Amino acid sequence: MRPRVYLAGPEVFLPDAAACAARKKAVCAAHGLEGVSPLDALATSPPGWDALPAWRRIHLCNEAHIRDAAALIANLTPFRGPSADAGTVWELGFARGLGLPIFGYTVATEAFTERTRRSLGCAGPATRDEEGMLLEDFGLADNLMIDGAIAAAGGVLLAGPPPAAGRWQDLAVFARCVAACARRLGVAG
Question: Around 112, how many Cα atoms within 13 Å sit in the side-chain half-sphere?
Answer without folding.
Answer: 19
